[in-house]
TrEMBL record:
Organism per entry: Natronoflexus pectinivorans
The protein, known as: Secreted protein
Positions of the Gfo/Idh/MocA-like oxidoreductase bacterial type C-terminal domain: 204-261
Superkingdom of source: Bacteria
PANTHER family referenced in this protein's UniProt entry, alphabetically: BCDNA.GH03377, NADH-DEPENDENT DEHYDROGENASE-RELATED
Amino acid sequence: MKSKIGRRDFLQKSGAAAVGLSVLPGIVSASQPAKPARRSPGDKLRIAGVGVGGRGFAVLRAMESEEIVALCDVDWRYSKNCFDYWPKAKKYWDWRKMLDEMGDEIDAVMVATADHTHAAIAATAITMGKHVYVEKPLTHTVYESRLLTKLAKKYKVATQMGNQGASEEGVSLVKEWIQNGEIGEVTRVEAFTDRPIWPQGLNTPTQGQWVPDHLNWDLFVGPAKMRPYNEIYTPWNFRGWWDYGTGALGDMACHILHPVFKGLNLGYPTRVQGSSTLLLQDCAPVAEKVRMIFPERARLRRVRMPEVEVHWYDGGLQPLKPDNWPAGKSLNVQGGGALFYGTKDILHVGCYGREPFLLSGRVPNAPKTERRINVSHEMDWVRACKESPENRTECSSAFDEAGPFNEMVVMGVLAVRLQALNKELHWDGENMRFTNIGDDETIRTVIKDGFEIRDGHPTFDQTWTEPVNAKKFAEELIKHEYRKGWSLPDMPA
């Protein structure tokens, strides 16, 4: 494929004028899924990468012992280093065209695009019989997480979410210490991240810009609503914009809350509540706080699992340090941390599950019940791809766990975005709905803050949305209505 196209042709494809015009091929049909030959442990896995300009390049390099056969990205300048690293791999703008043309030459797909396109790419690949590795957060919505969980089970493919701490020692230790009763019964957890380190709390740009030749804006927008291109949205800053990302919570909770989800055997929360600095319609806030309440769970080996509150902070906010915290010691380990408050002791663990320790100073000697992984997170997935479904040892963040866990993560986003209802929200996880939002309730959100200095005085002339039906707004956040030309496979029974 040519690395550049003419501006007239490009603008027709890119939607740069934001008129909502899309010239898009149909979604890949999964009615006759490709069935690549099964790889034996000695064979190289044939991998296609989608979203290879940033994190995706690093993930693929961790798998470079395998055969990288295709590379796809909407930004060919951002992905140039990856393209140059694998010059023999076929290059694409559109992942659907890639799967159409090379379906029987691909065994597995690595996805590291913006959050809002993870589900469509992964779901389509799964229905074609491809193994998938998807960077965190797994998906943009609760519904998409549930869909990937069920599709992975139906098609029996090897899956992995890219929260690499799941394959490290710390997460295993946290679960083993808790289930051995080392800290007693846990009724409260407080967790935080030092993110965002990208801009958030921004007003939406009022003017578009010319789309650069190296970017296909229409394909970047994908299933989201079309809007004029602006350099503030991509490549990296997408995380702070609701249409494309999930803010600091979605980015980092997949690392920081995973020991919490796994160690406490969590499922669906029953009650959630969020607050933040100024909440804007399009951009995630500067700082957030969320509380989720999980019901009592089945006993885990030697300890009871009572109802537990999980508190989240970001944007520079941290929990208060517990009594007897070592003076001068930071709560922040490589981007955040979590405190487990047990009836016998307090456990602190850093981001990625690293450096767990008990506040009492004891060093537990708990039985080793968790599988230890002696290869990288990425290569453990490669190993699983080469095993038959009947004999496969599942990865540490396979979708049967990563899917429900990611529902917890994006539930935090829902709590923040629905905070204007001014109440704790009750969640029916099985049916993916809030049960205490009335049919006639409405909600409004700030479109722009209107901040300016007038005669030396700060003023806020805020612009608000019109009141919208809160129940329908929540339903859209739970399950997005995709832009015309984009869709997902049906939810398996």
